[in-house]
Amino acid sequence: MLFNSIEYLVFFPIVFICYWLLQNRYKSQNILLLISSYVFYGWWDYRFLSLIIFSSFLDYFVGLKIEEAQGEKNKYRWLLVSLFSNLGLLGVFKYYNFFASSFSSSMSTLGWEVNDLTLQIILPVGISFYTFQTLSYSIDIYRGHIKPSRNIVAFFTFVSLFPQLVAGPIERASNLIPQIESKRRLNITLIKTGVFQIFIGLFRKVAIADNLGVYVDSVYGNYDIHNGSTLLVATIFYAFQIYFDFSGYSDIAIGSAKLMGFNFNRNFNFPYFSRTLTEFWRRWHMTLSFWLRDYLYISLGGNRKGIVITYRNLLLTMLIGGLWHGSSWNFVIWGGIHGIFLSLEKYAFSAFKIKTFNAFGYLYTFIVVLITWIFFRAKDLTSALAIFTEIFSFNYGALFIGNINSFVNAVILLSIGILIDLKIFRSDIPLEDYGVRFNTVKLSIIVSIIIIMLCLFYSTTENFIYFQF
């Protein structure tokens, strides 16, 4: 079920009303949330509910066993059960075909023909997100950061809570389980901030991202007939398309959660207003960035074992982060480029005793990110390299416009989106709290304007980009 679908427009109000009718019985609320979350996920394909239920049972049981185990070795063995089981499922569904086809291609290069080893496997929606969420739970118990939950309904709800189930934010048990295990109260602040963020998210997704996507798809779908200037504009559009698409999803998720009485972690903090790539990754998909930092980078040794090992850890973290996004060499290269530039930045900061770059850093950061988006968006490595080569040949010609109305709409909507971001960014008030600034009348006017714009600029595109991860 998609946030921008008619189904969700019916589903959420029904759940919302039933949920708050049970406001004095939070345990009943949790049962309703669990059932609703399974309906939400099963709407896509009910067969894959078995995977999320299995993962929930596994980590609930493992968490208890880690807590009860005597000695470090026994605790570690139970942690390995969680790691191998969860990553094994993720590996089979998401990466088996990638490695099988890569192996076959490698053998063919060496002159050895092997049978096709790939399988007809459907990638379950959201498996990367809820796998990381349950893994962090087991790891935190092993590290002694949290105690295991003995409330099985609360834990299953933590894993499957529908606003963040299929594309994040990746919530930590330390933040979400205590909220689930306690009474929630709906107040005017949660209503204002939640409603405002939901509609900002819908505007970002439906009005901005989807209209940019029309142009991006037309150019990247036929990259071989377009010149460097057209490919460059399409790549710039894609940089904002994926930002407004994914941040829009996060906004709707966080806003929906607020209306259910929950506070999710922030996932985006205006990443294109960054002066370094390091700062960019502290602002982009923040729950994933901090997950990779806390559970991968630090586990590898972080920056505690010398500068060379630090660079290695940065590169490995970003390579794995790239692979997390998709089973393709494009994503590995995307992560690798980020890892290299993050290492170069760390060297520059150390060598020149600086903490950040000057105003030129905004341009530098955007250019590096823009280059990597080519590999992220292109359908395969061959097309990515062709697009990269064409753009950096600097043999620019007339810009392909396509449908003039669609192109103008995309430019206008993008400009509005950037201005809104700039306004909120300069206010020093997080978007998550911005709605409280408006009284009921002003908020109603803002919502009405957004609804009108959604109707005017509605696109047939529905899927969120990050659903494929």
Give the termini distance in whole angstroms. 16 Å
The sequence of SSEs as H and E is HHHHHHHHHHHHHHHHHH
Sheet bearing the most strands, described? none
How many helices? The count is 18
Class inferred from helices and paired strands:
mainly alpha
Radius of gyration: 23 Å
Number of strands: 0
What count of structural domains?
A: 2
Percent in helix: over 70%
Task: Provide mean pLDDT, rounded.
Answer: 90
- Low-pLDDT parts are none
Strand content of the residues, in percent?
under 5%
Shape: globular
Structural summary, described in words:
The protein is mainly α and 469 residues long. It folds into two domains: 6-185, no CATH class; 189-275 and 357-468, no CATH class. It has 18 helices and no strands. It has helices at 6-21, 26-45, 49-68, 72-109, 127-143, 152-160, 173-180, 188-220, 228-259, 277-283, 286-297, 307-325, 329-352, 360-377, 381-391, 404-427, 431-434, 440-456. Helix 2 (26-45) packs across helix 6 (152-160), helix 3 (49-68) crosses helix 6 (152-160) and helix 13 runs antiparallel to helix 14. The longest helix has 38 residues, at 72-109. The radius of gyration is 23 Å and the shape is globular.
